[in-house]
């Protein structure tokens, strides 16, 4: 398979997807989201593949978020559709894939990047990784499941703080609060993920797919939360704060929010 924004490497039972827009810190534009869906669908259908690793190209970023330039001028309806469609074809899709998906977080995982890592079944980080949900600094909220998956993983209070401050935590802090399972030097990140994948691939793929289903079913009472997130995400696009936040980012200046 050939992709514009992804590199797909296959080694026996292991597939590694490298998100490859390093000049934009691997930001998720619509095309990349579509390609990730296509790659994951093909890997799901391929019975030779037992484990999938998702990582970012370069040494700086896993994914620095959804592509702000692409959505800065969206209307409320377009914003809501962006969240709903992305959730459906990528974030929920990864979470419910019937084979294990490991996020190898090799640098910044911000906004949609952290949300992608949260959708993966578990996360391993390199020492330089920095994670956060900076959306409110842009006048919008996390729209790809961040308000739902982050509190589940690290607890409501910690998630609230991270979302409200729009701050970043480093790999050590992420390890402490259970956001990532392991932290290693960057050069050991993929080898460790491959070792874990190798251990996983010795087990029954059928049993693993049932385990994924069972664990996810336990988390499914959040359906209304996801709906509320999508609706609120869309509503942000009608605010002056959103216009100011995204314009300020693209103009490389600090936002001055009118608060309306
Ligand atoms: N969407 C679109 N473009 C992005 C991006 C995003 N989420 N994140 C980074 N980029 C682009 C920058 O605009 C810049 O492009 P340019 O060289 O054409 O100007 C390029 O990637 C490099 O980023 P830059 O900001 O110069 O790198 P930095 O090392 O100074 O800062 C970050 C790194 C991650 C702190 C900074 O890029 C950032 O804050 N990104 C946005 C994070 C965010 O808010 N994500 C949530 C989106 S909902």
What can you tell me about this protein's structure?
There is one protein chain. The chain starts with 5 loop residues before the first strand and ends in a 10-residue tail after the last helix. Helix content is 49%, strand content 17%. It has eleven helices and ten strands. With 260 residues, the chain is α/β, with parallel strands linked by helices. It has helices at residues 30-45, 68-71, 76-95, 112-119, 146-154, 156-165, 171-176, 186-201, 205-217, 223-236, 240-250; strands at 6-11, 14-19, 51-56, 61-63, 101-105, 108-110, 122-126, 130-132, 168-170, 182-184. The structure holds coenzyme A (COA). Residues 24-25, 27, 64-69, 108, 110-112, 134-135, 138 line the site of coenzyme A (COA).
Topology summary:
Layout: E1 6-11, E2 14-19, H1 30-45, E3 51-56, E4 61-63, H2 68-71, H3 76-95, E5 101-105, E6 108-110, H4 112-119, E7 122-126, E8 130-132, H5 146-154, H6 156-165, E9 168-170, H7 171-176, E10 182-184, H8 186-201, H9 205-217, H10 223-236, H11 240-250
Helix pairs in contact: 1-3, 3-4, 3-10, 4-5, 5-6
Coenzyme A is lined by residues 24-25, 27, 64-69, 108, 110-112, 134-135, 138.
Key terms:
single chain, 260 residues, alpha/beta, 6-stranded mixed beta sheet, 4-stranded mixed beta sheet, 11 helices, 49% helix, globular, binds coenzyme A
Short description:
The protein is an alpha/beta fold and 260 residues long.
Give, in order, the helices and strands.
EEHEEHHEEHEEHHEHEHHHH
Strand order in the sheet with the most strands: 1-2-3-5-7-10
Overall helicity: 40-55%
Query: Describe the biggest sheet?
Result: 6 strands, mixed
Uncertain regions spanning at least 5 consecutive residues? none
Give the number of helices: 11
Tell how many strands the DSSP assignment holds.
10
Radius of gyration: 17 Å
Q: Distance between termini?
A: 46 Å
Mean pLDDT: 96
Share of residues in strands: 15-25%
């Amino acid at each position: 398979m050939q992709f514009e924004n992804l590199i797909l490497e296959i080694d026996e039972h292991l597939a590694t997807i490298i998100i490859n827009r390093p000049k934009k810190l691997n930001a998720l534009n619509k095309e990349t989201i579509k390609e990730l869906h296509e790659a994951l669908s093909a890997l799901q259908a391929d019975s030779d593949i037992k484990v999938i690793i998702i990582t970012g190209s370069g040494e700086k970023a896993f994914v620095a978020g959804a592509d702000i330039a692409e959505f800065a001028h969206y209307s409320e309806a377009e914003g809501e559709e962006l969240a709903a469609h992305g959730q459906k074809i990528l974030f929920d899709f990864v979470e419910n894939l019937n084979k294990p998906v490991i996020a190898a977080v090799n640098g910044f995982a911000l906004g949609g990047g952290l949300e992608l890592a949260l959708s993966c079944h578990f996360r391993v980080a390199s020492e330089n990784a920095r994670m956060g949900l900076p959306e409110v600094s842009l006048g919008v909220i996390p729209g790809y499941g961040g308000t739902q998956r982050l509190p589940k993983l690290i607890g409501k209070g910690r998630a609230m703080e991270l979302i409200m401050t729009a701050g970043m935590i480093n790999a050590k802090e992420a390890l402490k609060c259970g956001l990532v399972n392991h932290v290693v030097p960057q050069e050991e990140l993929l080898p460790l993920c491959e070792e874990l994948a190798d251990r996983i691939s010795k087990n029954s793929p059928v049993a693993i797919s049932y385990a994924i289903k069972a664990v996810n079913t336990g988390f499914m009472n959040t359906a209304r939360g996801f709906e509320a997130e999508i609706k609120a995400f869309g509503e942000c696009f009608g605010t002056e704060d959103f216009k100011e936040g995204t314009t300020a980012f693209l103009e490389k200046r600090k936002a001055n929010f009118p608060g309306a």
